[in-house]
Amino acid sequence: MKKPVIQFEQFNFKYRTQVDPTLHDLNLTIYEGEKVLIVGPSGSGKSTIGHCLNGLIPFSYKGEITGSLNIMGQETKNLDIFSLSKMVGTVLQDPDGQFIGLTVAEDIAFALENDVRAQDEMVSIVKDVSSMVDMDDYLQSSLHQLSGGQKQRVSLAGVMVDNVDILLFDEPLANLDPATGKHAIQLIDRIQKETNTTVVIIEHRLEDVLECHVDRIIVVDKGKIVADLTPDELLASSVLEQCNIREPLYVKAAKYAGVKVKPESKPSHIKTFAVDKDKLLTWFEATSPPYLKKKSEPILELENLHFSYSPGKDTIHNVSFSIDKGEMLSIAGKNGAGKSTLASLICGFNKPTSGKILFKGKDITNDTIKERAERIGLVMQNPNQMISKHMIFEEVALGLVLRGVPEDEIKERVEKTLQICGLYPFRNWPISALSFGQKKRVTIASILVLEPELIILDEPTAGQDFKHYTEIMEFLSKLNEEGITILMITHDMHLMLEYTPRAIVIAGGEKIADDTSANILTDQDVIKRANLKETSLFDLAVKAGIEEPREFVGRFIAFDKGVRTTWQ
User: Fold this and answer.
1) Total Cβ atoms within 10 A of residue 329
2) Between 466-481 and 436-448, two packed helices, what is the crossing angle to 10 degrees?
3) Average pLDDT over residues 225-252
4) How far apart are the C-alpha atoms of 304 and 276, rounded to whole Å?
5) DSSP summary character for residue 360
């Protein structure tokens, strides 16, 4: 019988600044060596559970606790944060916020230095742990030179040196490209098996986490546990849909085809899922192919663009493409491929070494940032790099104030935009009180309120739950239908498939593909070169024996959008 390592009993928590409790009557036991996934919509309380486990509650976030939380046989009320950190190691959503040292080796060794370990012992432990996370060749590298996936491995190594009993991952996939995210999940799985450490993962991207085995999934909604099931049991239920959590696409497609998803059909992974081939084939033959928009005149053209941060090495190499007015498309590729650099060139933050940028046929290569900002809006990946005001209303209104818009019009436009972005109830809140995902929506609102002709969004849905993801993307779709051109830089393959008929793929600073999203996410060569991830819809179609699996992917997306439109 495995011993319990985490026990919540009638546990309640209320933040000092709030009227109502965030967690209600939590009863949850996690056992030694288990891997548990916690999912739930934004504001459900899942991050608060993580804060209770690692001691940020009550030591950093003050509030009122009732009930009991027992970790490794000790009541957490009687422990300090240092003692808890020796039992629970946390890998944060943003690894940059966790780094202390200048090099990989220094950062991994930080906890050991705090414990005043002998230098020979530290060197040996750092070498062993870095090898476990495949970072032993980077020990002398600067942390700032690492990719997103490498940074996360260093964060993991930094908590593993303490031989913690529990590893807590807070949204480990949020800032990673699809292939790197897949490797991260495989790494967590391997370490959990090798060390028998208890692993708790808090994550929105359910299908990606289920790449590897998970013992249980805890669904949290409105501060309460609404389900504690095996992955197969959960996917066969209606809990995810009721709580606005995205189901794996292959499960959703099977349900559309009238397949009864049962726990015994093992739906937790596409490889184990026993599908009803006849029903899928019948559904496929009865559905219509996607409707494709007619081409219109170009709004943005890039011609033979080159750019380098240092002489002799191109970051962007001979990139050319055209975007039509009214299009909605994605730019995809792995971390460091040059996607964000392209956005900075389009907006004028950097000047190309050679090549031209045209807007509505006019050369804007030498236009100022201010001149471009009248027509092109950019929503950056990190909201903290855009926010300059303390209050939400002031931040969204700032661009209009600087443009001299009348006060009455500012109020009307800001309130309308806040309602669309789901932020109206928080309009008088300080920005410091918001989550990362809420801050992201503030920055989107601050650009949308300016009504630009072309909007570039860098990872628009990072950190968003399915409900807010859908709200933002449906809003962007409506803007697009009204004629606004939208370009999205994204790691989210679901977003590419669902909302952008066309995608451009960048690898090593070059354009390697420009095709429909369905074709790109079923092209093994492009997927491998750009660190993308094949869609499970393609695998489902192959498994069902459908001769045109690419066509199946396209028809699912068209059908899915039609169904969601009907629901609205």
Assistant:
1) 20
2) 10
3) 93
4) 49
5) T
Tokens for 241, please give them: 């849909």
* Backbone dihedral angles phi then psi of residue 275, each to the nearest 5 degrees: -100, 155
Question: Does the pLDDT of residue 392 top 90, yes or no?
Answer: yes
Which residues lie closer than 8 Å to 361 by C-beta, 6 or more apart?
298, 301
Predicted TM-score (pTM) of this structure = 0.81
Strand partners, 280: none
Question: 147 forms bridges with which residues in the sheet?
Answer: none
Contacts of 414 by beta carbon, 8 Å cutoff, 6+ apart: 393, 396, 397, 400, 427, 445, 449
Buried b (16+ CB within 10 A) or exposed e, 437-464: bbbbbbbbbbbbbbebbbbbbbbbbbbb
CA distance 280 to 255: 9
Q: Tokens 């393609």, residue?
A: 538
Q: Which residue has the tokens 């060390």?
A: 195
3-state SS of 194-236? HHCCEEEEECCCHHHHCCCCCCEEEEEECCEEEEEECHHHHHC
Three-state SS for 282-295 is: HHHHHCCCCCCCCC
Q: What pLDDT is attached to residue 50? A: 92
Instruction: Indicate whether 82 pLDDT > 50.
Output: yes
Burial state string for 64-87 with b = 16 or more CB within 10 A and e = fewer than 16: ebeeebbbbeeebeebeeeebbeb
58 preceded by a cis bond (ω within 30 of 0): yes
Who contacts 119 (Cβ-Cβ below 8 Å, separation ≥6)? Answer: none
DSSP letter string over 17-59? T-SS-SEEEEEEEEETT-EEEEE--TTSSHHHHHHHHHTHHHH
Report how far residue 155's alpha carbon sits from residue 151's, in angstroms, rounded to the nearest whole number.
Answer: 6
Q: Where are the alpha helices (DSSP H) in 381-421?
A: 392-402, 407-420
pLDDT per residue over 549-564, tens digit each?
888 988 888 888 776 5
Q: Which two tokens stand for residue 510?
A: 């070059």
